[in-house]
Amino acid sequence: MRKPRDFDGELKALQDKARDLKSRKVQQLGELVIATGADSLSADELAGALIVLAETKEAGKREAWAKRGAAFFQGRARRNAPTTDRNTDGPPAQPSGAQPASSREGAT
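The structure corresponding to this sequence follows.
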């Protein structure tokens, strides 16, 4: 005969897992705010900027922001990599905060 499933136990395990995932997400968002330097903004400024970002539907702006974010993370990975792993053949990459004026206008 089969052992009956413990639905209450499974549900509790799923709830615990969901709580852990939410906690990890909140922690990672906080780390991202600090890593980008956005922790220097007031809570009102940061919330306002995030609301504008979330409400923006323009694909061009979102794509530009995504490229800039990817460049930020690639720059961090490059800084953390040992010097022997770095690609020194190509031109030097721009710092994550520096963008040409034409890109900056399109991203705002």
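The two ends are 65 Å apart (CA to CA).
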